[in-house]
Amino acid sequence: ATVYVTVQSVNDPPRFEEQPTEREIGKTAREGDLVGAPFTATDVDHEPLTLSYSLSGAGAAAFEIEEHTGQIMVATDAVLDPAVQAEYMLTVTARDPDGASATLEITITVTESAVTVPTLVFGGGGFPAGLGGGGPSGPEPSDEDFEWNVERDIEELDPRNDWPSGVWSDGKTLWILDNPDGAGDAVYAYDLETGERLEDREFELDDTNGAPRGVWSDGTTVWVSDSGRDTLFAYDLETGERLPERDIVLTRRNRDARGIWSDGETIWVLNRNPSLFAYDLETGVLLGEYELADQNGSPQGLWSDGVTVWVSNHDPKRLFAYRLPVPPAEPPEEPPALERVIGEDFEEPGRVGNNSPRGIWSDGAVMYVADESDNRVYSYNMPDAIDARLVSLELSGVDFGEFSPLRYDYASATIPHGNIATLTATAAQEGASVGIDPADQDGDPANGYQLRLLPGREITITVTSADGSRERVYRLRLGEEAAGPAASCLRGAVNVGFSLVVHEGGSVEDLVACAQARHVTALYALHEGEYLPYIVGAPDFVTAPFRDLFADGVPALLPLVVRSEGPATPAPAAPAVTEPFPACLLGEIGEGFSLVVSEGGTVADLAACAAGLGVTAVYALVEGEYVPYILGAPEFVNRPFAELFPDGVPAATPLTVRGEGP
After folding, report:
1. Parallel, antiparallel or unpaired: strands 266-271 and 275-280
2. What are the structural domains, with CATH classification, of the chain?
3. Cα 406 to Cα 458: distance, rounded to the nearest angstrom
4. 3-state secondary structure string, 519-588?
5. Cα(252)–Cα(298) distance, rounded to whole angstroms?
6. In this predicted model, what pLDDT tens digit does every residue of 342-372 receive, in sequence order?
7. In the prediction, which pLDDT does 441 show?
8. Less Cβ crowding at N or C end of the chain, within 10 Å?
9. Average pLDDT, the chain
């Protein structure tokens, strides 16, 4: 007999994979505003877009859910008020075409402040990534807060670095620990910008440091945690030499150590159980112990900006955010729970394939997250509003080394003598504010921040984030004055205010250095009846006409008007002028006032020379006052001028003359 057996397939219900179930929305949100990222389910029997989603629970009418994507939005006419209802405990139901369903309990919290909502990343077919609709076109870079940056990723680690754990960087090199199941524990180094491996920056771990999980350095010493030892192992970052005297012994409760981070005073150490311990970096004394959130049950990496501390977690795959506490004077008997900052969680890792997040580190612009499963380092955008970094720092004429937003203390070896310089400090974000101490020298913001360079002076630049929650303080200490040129490079006394001097000749740079040594803040050269200024420390476009005029160098015995804010300097001893002058008054003489240099001689010789050149008056500038010699005037009028030069007019004396023209 023939027996026919009919096999009927059994429809499997949809399934919600492990994913964050908490969302936040600001009370000012409007109709259609997204409430976090979508809630999505999978179904082995049906395509993702054939599933339908619904929302239920007390207060569910305040929200709507998009039927085929699981995206929750604020409903029409919804009024969100945390004073009335701060939390909504709702149920998301996913149903397949055959009627099978799955549910997910979620919580939506209404906050006083606005919440940054991530945007959806779309695949090649126009559907949300992961929902099908055609082949994906690859990851879509994003510049939105907390989202996958993509462009800053290190896409492929060294093949031997296939069990990455802790990470730390100095802003240029990224060190990544490797912790395989067996032998081979190691430290790998990569160029942070290119991802290229840098073997010369790597160092060997101690034989007993066999389960490396966390790494942090102060730039000189590097500490490595070990999940099988109650010790933070210390090494010299440059040479890799073991520094056992710098080891930090952990409490026995912290012997399954994971990620570590320090602010330079307190070092924080994660533990698997899950908890966070604080120790004095210098003495190793235990300062405090804290509990992590229940969901943060598989902690891995640790990093903080000094306000928020982030902890990477294996499952759920996200970065949990907490407020970084101040360790108490005496640790309490029971460890308190860390305060959660849900609005600063990174929820993207589990959605973009970062399924085994391990070590984390941030430069303030992006958060780097190493992944154990695909040997990639992912990058996620840090929120702009909490960014308090400088992106550049310059002080004209002063060399204080290469600037990095991650380095806060600078010092110059030397400074130019008596210089007024321009300080330019640019914040990384437009909304951040920058404060500088001491105050602007001249109080005029139009010409930038002006600063007098004084030996040992400390300049403090404070950057405040756009939301006011963070501050970064950068410090620059000025060195000793550099040896300047001989004072005689400018002939004549320099008084407070304006003075007439003569330059010995050379480049514009030589002239400026000479002027700074005499506390000069501005120089003026007369050209075709117009004064061309050189303002010391001013931007290039201000001084460009002056530099263009003397592109081939400043001629010897050039008369100049200079301005100084003091201290005054007397006329220095200068070598005698032995070369004959080509004219008794050297310089361009036109109609009106001109600057000239006298070849020297008696006052009568000067008057005769001036008359022959069409000059009607000669002026000497003394302590800010002009002393005139009017040709043809009575003797008593010119007596002060004659008394000024009783022994004759010295060679190379600068003068102002008035001419009637040809």
Report:
1. antiparallel
2. 1-138 (2.60.40.60), 164-382 (2.120.10.30), 386-481 (2.60.40.2340), 491-659 (no CATH)
3. 19
4. CEEEEEEEECCEEEEEECCCCHHHHHHHHHHCCCCECCCEEEEEEECCCCECCCCCCCCCCCCCCCEECC
5. 19
6. 999 999 998 898 989 999 999 999 999 999 9
7. 86
8. N
9. 89
pLDDT of residue 128: 45
Q: Residues 466, 431: contact at Cβ < 8 Å?
A: yes
* Per-residue model confidence (pLDDT) at position 531: 86
Query: Following DSSP, what letter does each residue of 323-349 receive, concatenated?
Result: EPPPPPSS--SSPPBPPB-GGG-B--G
Distance CA 505, CA 556 (A): 4
Alpha-carbon separation of residue 409 from 130, 400, 458 (angstroms): 46, 10, 10
No. of helices (H) and no. of strands (E), the chain = 4, 42
Q: Is the pTM of this model over 0.90?
A: no
Are 277 and 268 within 8 A, CB to CB?
yes
Q: List the beta strands (DSSP E) in 2-44.
A: 22-26
Task: Give every residue of the chain whose pLDDT is below 50, as ranges.
Answer: 118-137
3 state SS of 144: coil
Tell me: the pLDDT tens digits for 56-111?
999 999 999 988 788 898 887 888 999 899 999 999 999 998 889 999 999 999 98
Prior bond to 634 cis, omega within 30?
no
- Fill in the amino acid letter for 195: G
What's the rounded Cα separation, in Å, for the pair 19 and 173?
Answer: 33
Helix, strand, coil content of the chain in percent (nearest 5): 10, 40, 50
Q: In the prediction, which pLDDT does 533 show?
A: 93
pLDDT of res. 30: 78
Residue type, 161: N
471, 463 in Cβ contact below 8 A? yes
User: What tokens does 81 get?
Assistant: 């008020």
Cβ atoms of 601 and 648 closer than 8 Å:
yes
pLDDT at 662: 60
* 120 exposure class (CB count in 10 Å sphere: 0-12, 13-18, 19+): middle
The predicted structure's pLDDT at residue 1:
61
Angle at alpha carbon of residue 485, lines to 482 and 486, rounded to 5°: 130
Measured between alpha carbons, how far is 143 from 166 in angstroms, rounded to an integer? 26
Please name the helix (run of DSSP H) or strand (run of DSSP E) that holds residue 178, with its range, or none.
Answer: strand 173-178
Q: β-strands 299-304, 52-56: how paired?
A: unpaired
Q: pLDDT > 90: what percent of the chain?
A: 60
Tokens 């391990």, located at residue: 358
CA dist 547 → 460, 519, 563 (Å): 32, 20, 18
Return the SS3 of 611: helix
pLDDT of residue 133: 41
Provide the strand spans (E) within 599-651.
615-622, 625-630
The closest alpha carbon to 441, from 486, 396, 493, belongs to: 396
What is the structure's pLDDT at 361?
A: 99
